[in-house]
TrEMBL record:
GO terms for molecular function: DNA binding; DNA-binding transcription factor activity. It comes from the Bacteria. Pfam families: HTH_1 (PF00126), LysR_substrate (PF03466). Keywords: DNA-binding, Transcription, Transcription regulation. Residues 4-61 form the HTH lysR-type domain. Belongs to the LysR transcriptional regulatory family. This is LysR family transcriptional regulator. InterPro entries: LysR-type_TF, LysR_HTH_N, LysR_subst-bd, WH-like_DNA-bd_sf, WH_DNA-bd_sf. Gene3D superfamilies: Periplasmic binding protein-like II (3.40.190.10), Winged helix-like DNA-binding domain superfamily/Winged helix DNA-binding domain (1.10.10.10).
Length: 308
């Protein structure tokens, strides 16, 4: 490059991450024409087109692909260098944190997190995002601050902290006939079931456990979330199998449901929080991670589940 301009590096990082002028402009809060002019400056400085048109989209040149990781590392180092490492002054902190979480985590822990944040840092907003796109690049590119959920495919650099161990229990409406008598695997399998799967799956660990006993169940309904399955069970004779924390939260709010231990053995759930190392020394982000950990541990203790 000619003279070093950190803003050009930041813009190049955004362009390579978004793959479009419009997307990079939104990311940097610039107009599309301004970003186009910045791209022209980058092309002049690098001596390469960087992004070229392929049909209706832009694709990176070999030189841009070569630069991508190096530019990202330089930008991250610069941001870390300019970020204060001291404790955050929570009384004046005004910041929006984006937390990607399943309906399980948001529903069970969201209210407690909001209450604790309001007490400690009234200027902070917590924005929960759906886990429909569970790509690790959202952490790498800073589109989310924290990811809460079950272990998934994380990059080697991503920080991971265990928060909670939970287990599945059966759930039915109060007074359900299945609650009368011993809860055997055969009686459980003979009931009509509702499944909870964002991907629409009708089989899972419970079905594998029943298979080993020579049994099978009928999943007549598949819901996209735990809470939809929970409400279905509360309003019918259909049986659901859900994490204990979800059921305990609902019962505590007065929903007329009752849980029971499953008559088959299924794996427990490990809930983790993950973040990118760029936030390791960020005082506000460190406070957020500690808040999440403390809130989930407290919630787990109330429901009788072991924290991570």
């Amino acid at each position: 490059m000619h003279s070093m301009d950190l803003n050009l590096l930041v813009a190049l990082d955004a362009l390579l991450a978004e793959g479009s002028v419009a997307g990079a402009a939104r990311r940097m809060n610039l107009s599309a024409p301004a970003m186009s002019r910045t791209l022209a400056r980058i092309r002049d400085a690098v001596g390469d087109p960087v992004l070229v048109r392929a049909g209706r989209r832009l694709v990176p040149t070999p030189r841009a692909i070569e630069l991508r990781d190096r530019v990202r590392a330089v930008v991250e180092d610069a941001q870390a260098l300019l970020r204060p490492e001291g404790a955050a002054d929570l009384t004046v902190l005004e910041r929006t944190f984006t937390i990607r979480a399943s309906d399980y985590a948001a529903g069970v822990f969201g209210a407690g997190l909001a209450a604790a944040a309001a007490r400690q840092a009234p200027g902070v907003t917590l924005r929960f995002a759906d886990q429909g796109q569970e790509d690790v690049n959202a952490l790498r590119e800073g589109r989310i601050d924290l990811d809460i959920g079950v272990p998934a495919d994380t990059g080697p650099e991503i920080r991971v902290q265990a928060l909670l161990q939970d287990r599945f229990v059966g759930v039915v409406r109060q007074g359900h006939p299945l609650l009368q008598g011993d809860m055997t695997a055969k009686r459980f399998a003979a009931a009509t079931h509702v499944g909870a799967s964002r991907r629409g799956r009708t089989r899972g660990p419970i079905d594998a456990a029943l298979d080993r006993l020579g049994l099978s169940r009928r999943v007549a309904l598949v819901m996209p979330s735990f809470y939809a399955a929970l409400l279905t069970a509360a309003a019918s004779d259909i049986v659901a199998a859900l994490p204990l924390a979800v059921v305990a939260r609902a019962a505590g709010l007065g929903l007329a449901v009752q849980s029971f231990d499953l008559p088959v053995t299924v794996p427990t759930i490990t809930v983790i929080q993950t973040w990118h190392p760029r936030f390791d020394k960020d005082a506000g982000h460190r406070w957020l991670r500690q808040l999440v950990k403390a809130t989930i541990v407290e919630t787990a203790e109330r429901s009788g589940e072991p924290a991570g």
